[in-house]
Specification:
With 80 residues, the chain is mainly alpha-helical. The protein has helices spanning 2-14, 28-43, 57-79.
């Protein structure tokens, strides 16, 4: 279930137009889980309503980059 959910979420964030989640094995329980993955992403994450689900990620990337640069500078000072 985690593999299917992660793959479907990646597809949505990547900008896909349509998704089909196939079950790993052909039995009724796993087929039901595969159908419910898309329902879960739509109803609980509201990814179908959001125009750009990755909006704002540039801000986080900038903060992480600043943190990494600061840590690298401190690391270099400790070595010298």
């Amino acid at each position: 279930m985690l593999k299917s959910t992660t793959a479907a979420l990646s597809a949505v964030l990547g900008g896909c137009n349509a998704i089909t989640v196939e079950p790993e094995e052909h039995n009724t329980f796993k087929a039901r889980i595969a159908r419910n993955v898309l329902t879960l992403l739509r109803e609980e994450s509201h990814l179908n309503i959001t125009a750009d689900p990755t909006a704002g990620s540039y801000y986080l990337e900038r903060l992480i980059d600043q943190l990494a640069q600061s840590a690298w500078t401190k690391f270099q000072q400790d070595i010298a």
